[in-house]
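Hi R.,

Here's the chain you asked about this morning:
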Amino acid sequence: MTDWSVYAGHSMKDLRIASAELPLGTPSMTRSLNGRRDKRARILAAGLKLFANQPYQQVTMDKVAKLARVAKGTLYLYFPSKESLYLGVLSDGLEAAAASMQATIAPKLDIAERLQHAIAATIEFYYGRCDFLRLLATEEPRVGAARGRLLQSWREFGMKFFSSMIEEGIAAGAFRPLDPRLVAFAIIGTIRSVLLHRDTNRPVAEINRDLASLLFEGLSARGGKTRERSQRQ
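And here is the predicted structure, written out as tokens:
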């Protein structure tokens, strides 16, 4: 898993002091571990809901504890400050997004199909996580430097993920010889912009179909040759 969480000289594991893995063995240990995971998941979900829909300064640890249904003292065991909670929410979402994208890798498919699957998976991930998409789109100067480092790591992962497929497609003659990083940036930016401002009544399958058509028409080597012939006529 890519580590998005290194910021201010610390890694995200420092913010997860209460979610460290316990040794498995007895049923009571397993129940304890599952209970801790459940609490942490509830805290992160509550933090995401509040940070995505309220100004940062209006979110309090009291509100998070109440929404997560945990004691305030328990909340501080998992996240010692509001800043660490915000960054934990952001890091958790970025890790989930990366896992979703990596799960689409299918070497047996041709490069065009692999890219199409990766785009579809990215659309579906953000489509079902509107709060996280809003969190990504909302600047928060109070944690600006740390947030910026997390997002920069994530952007670089996304750029490498998509640009490597573009490079492979160009080498195979499937895609036009365009700048791979520019194309990757266009893919990521288009997906986020469309989903942020989409018609909420449109099914994800329709969005997938239309965006795939738009992106692949411009990228396809065959489509590019057709347009070039048309422009010369």
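One quick note: The CA atoms of residues 60 and 115 lie 41 Å apart.

Cheers,
M.
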